[in-house]
Amino acid sequence: MTKVKSIVVGTGGFARFHIGAMMDMKRTTDIVGFVEPSEPSRTATAVFFSERGIACPPFYETIRELVKDQGAADAAVICCPHKYHFESAQNCLQNGMDVLIEKPMVMNGVEAKRLIALRNRTGRLVMVAFPGSLSPAIWKAKQLLAQGAIGKVSAISAFAHQRWKAATIGTWRQIPEISGGGFLFDTGSHMINTVVDLLDVDVACVSAMFDNRNTPVEINSSVCGLSTNGIMFSLAGAGDSIQCCSQVLVFGDSGVLKTGIWGECLSIKKANQNEFKPMPFRKSRGPWEQFLRVRSGKMQNPCPPEVGLRFAELMDMIRRSFETGRTIASSGRDKPRR
Q: CB of 141 within 8 A of CB of 242?
């Protein structure tokens, strides 16, 4: 089996989740280099390899430097700060590499459209690492909803809470020019994406409130909205809390479906039941394993950049609602908040 030569752009804390998964797939994956300007991140990554008794691939300052030194790889995983997602993806695609890009895909809707146009021009694969869209639990939930397992759906409610504010003090995640936003744009992006996945239709309008909690970015948030087929949804983000936890509830007239924003669980409760019943679903080895399956033609792309565009445009509407104090319609027409 020919191994896929891959690079990783950005080797911070969460990047090592991807790196670890790639290291476990020795038969299919060969990590040939890292793009990481931060010396502390380089050191931590080198230790990560040393602890496993594996030689660490070389580090480079830029993608251009890596390509000049060893040629283009087959694929790239992009895990750098949000501001640099588009530029990094652009450089990789233009050098003939397929791309797995961390969420949020880019900073806004304009960048998302530019990335899709670039994907179309280069003909390369772009997949966004939204766990919800890649989760067999969410795939099964959508099947159950389509089959009417809980009857006619009227509302969806979701929350996510985390000790995000304290954990990100002094990091790029609280610099809006680099992060693009706070808790809702970071961890909360999973919540938004999974709820919209479950809606499976366009959003008609949204209304949002933020509380920065004395930081430069939003920490707590409350968002409500309406889909084009009349389903109401509410999203609560609490980034000044404890641990990291979430829940998504889909309300039907004959049952309730429950999952998490990462698609990590799935259960259902019917009208005649007092407790939720766990629903079995196929386990996944994670984004990289699915990326390789898509790349080899064994499955369709479950999270193309169009999903990233959907999130980016909805996040643009949410920001505009907070900034104007108005309900924002997908048509672009603002409505007074009542």
A: no
Residues (pLDDT < 50) of the chain are: 336, 338
In whole angstroms, what is the distance from residue 190 CA to residue 188 CA?
5
Residue with tokens 């968002």: 223
β-pair partners for 127: 100
115 within 8 A of 308, measured Cβ to Cβ: yes
Taking a C-beta distance cutoff of 8 angstroms, is the pair 174, 222 a contact? no
Reading the block at residue 28, the tokens are: 């299919």
pLDDT score for 80: 98
Cα gap 61→28, rounded to integer Å: 26
CATH 3.40.50.720 in the chain, residue ranges: 4-129
Residue 166 has what pLDDT?
A: 98
Predicted local confidence at residue 1, as pLDDT? 61
Both tokens assigned to 13: 């804390």
Cβ proximity of 325 and 136 under 8 Å: no
* Residue pair 39/105 in contact by the 8 Å Cβ criterion: no
Which tens digit of pLDDT belongs to each residue from 171-217? 999 999 999 999 999 999 999 999 999 999 999 999 999 999 999 99
Task: Quote the CA–CA distance of 30 and 27 in Å, as a whole number.
Answer: 8
The CATH number corresponding to 4-129 among 2.60.120.200, 1.10.1040.10, 3.40.50.720, 3.40.50.200 equals 3.40.50.720
Superfamily of domain 136-282+305-336, CATH level 4: Dihydrodipicolinate Reductase; domain 2 (3.30.360.10)
Q: In the prediction, which pLDDT does 284 show? A: 86
pLDDT of residue 2: 86
- Strand order of the sheet with strand 126-129? 59-60, 29-35, 4-9, 75-78, 98-102, 126-129
Helix, strand or coil for residue 277?
strand
- Give the helix/strand (H/E) hosting 188: helix 188-199
Tell me if residue 11 falls in helix, strand or coil: coil
In angstroms, the CA 95 to CA 75 distance is 10
How many Cα atoms occupy the beta-carbon half-sphere of 170 within 13 Å? 2
